[in-house]
Amino acid sequence: MLNIIKAGFFTTLQDQGRFLFRNMGVPVSGVMDTMAVSKINALLENDDNDAVLEITMTGPVLSFEEPTFIALGGAEMAVFLNDLPIRNYRVYQIKKGDVLSYGKLENGIRNYLGVKGGFTTEPILGSRSFYKPVTQHNSVKDHTSLPYGICKDFKPKITELKVDASIIEAKVLKVYKGPEFQQLHPNQLEQLFYTEFSVAKENNRMAYQVNETIEGYQVSMLTSATLPGTVQLTPAGKLIILMKDGQTTGGYPRILQLSDEAIAVLSQKKSGDHFTFKLI
Amino acid sequence: MSSHKISIRPFGIHAILVEWPVKIEEAILNEILEFVQYLKKYHLKETAWEFIPAYNSLTLICRDAEIDFGVLKPKLEEWYLAKKEPVLLEQYLWRLPVCYDAEYGVDLQEVSDHLGISFQEIIKLHSSAIYTVYGIGFLPGFTYLGGLPEALEIPRKPVPRAKVFKGSVGIAGKQTGIYPQDSPGGWNIIGICSVSMFDAKSKTPCFLKVGDKVQFYPISKAEYQLHKIESEVGIYKMEKLKWDA
């Protein structure tokens, strides 16, 4: 068991997501920064879908009841294993009773903690990803615990990956044209591709909003499917970028669609961070 | 079948969007649902593809692979126009109990004032219509029900409520729907339904499917409390009838 001594600001368990239930309105969920998690699971020689902790902004304090191996990735945070600093994208051996504590956030906003074999909670509707009301809670709580398998012997093929900060610092989101892109007029197109947008304080696993507006949209459309990474334009000219817990349908024009990579890049942005859109 | 003109557009690399004429029509919805059945049976595996029908559109999502739009678009067009055996859609009419008491129907007074009709008329109109599920989304188990009587058409609230209670029955524009859990919401709330619309522990977490029919019937506060308990402990018996489109 991993004991959650302090949960931190918003810590959840996530795998690659909950598929095949979108026709019932169930969002996909799953890790926001898929690029970081792929590297962690690869280092631990896990399955890509193995569940990891997604740690947002202010990290937790955790203690391990069984031996295992861990790797961190994503946002750069000051993390200590029994008071010794450890770094991202490196495999560390864990002994019974070891304590992992998170300190200052340095770069990005979401850090990930993977364990050898992944966390082994009971999947619900095919996934371990937290999403209330599918799961009981929307984040892990103080003084609870999460199960994982014991691992004493593991000789990783690679013990450390060199990952530079350029992904976290990337400012360009690569996007496809959305289904309603053709209905944008020249003014809106210019604003969309020549504005440096900044992330609004309304940003979470459901959606990211931006502070700047572009010219609004008066055409009404019938409700239709939306995806993680869909950029919606409201009549008032606000942009709403749906993320992993985003709703599965919407009634606003879907003007752009983020690439998988762009979703990962955006998921490391916090309030006030800047970015631009670039068509693929 | 296959009588309407469709348009097919890319939607990122994991999805493709098929659209029918922009109309709220049962004939169009059923054509979409028939096409879904045909695709599932012959061409697109249900384990790899997700099918999201809503009003006049069908979104096909492939989780793992990248869609080659140039290849799939002509195939979809061909499949759409292919001569098919008749499809029998399995659809049901669900009768759902609603308590239209002002304690739960927190916007009844406002709706009554705005539309110039009495509470009794609102209840009679709302519970006499047979609605069609045109889409499921917004929240797990939230159904967009079309077929609202014209006399009940009212705009969404100018400022959404921060918290609408689970089970609340709302009306907005040409639609009605039931909030499957506590959530923010902008629809005008006229009552509460005791049946749980979404249960992650069930084999079919959402019993309503796109294309199903819904009719509401009024119940008292006491009946609402009873049905709610029955529903929570899992002994409430749903009323459903086979529906022939």
Automatic annotation (TrEMBL), chain A:
Domain of life: Bacteria
One Pfam family of this chain: CT_A_B
Transmembrane segments annotated in the record for this chain: none
InterPro entries attached to this UniProt entry: CT_A_B (IPR003778), Cyclophilin-like_dom_sf (IPR029000), PxpC (IPR052708)
Molecular functions per Gene Ontology: ATP binding; hydrolase activity
Domain Carboxyltransferase stretches: 23-280
Keywords of the record: ATP-binding, Hydrolase, Nucleotide-binding
Full protein name: Biotin-dependent carboxylase uncharacterized domain-containing protein
From TrEMBL, chain B:
Molecular-function GO term, any one: hydrolase activity
Domain Carboxyltransferase: 6-208
SUPFAM superfamilies in the record: Cyclophilin-like, PH0987 N-terminal domain-like
SMART domains: AHS1
Pfam families assigned to the protein according to its UniProt record, in alphabetical order: CT_C_D
Keyword Glycosyltransferase on entry: no
Keywords of the record: ATP-binding, Hydrolase, Nucleotide-binding
InterPro entries documented for this protein: CT_C_D, Cyclophilin-like_dom_sf, PxpB
NCBIfam families: 5-oxoprolinase subunit PxpB (TIGR00370)
Matches recorded under PANTHER family: 5-OXOPROLINASE SUBUNIT B
The name this protein goes by in its record: Sensor histidine kinase inhibitor, KipI family
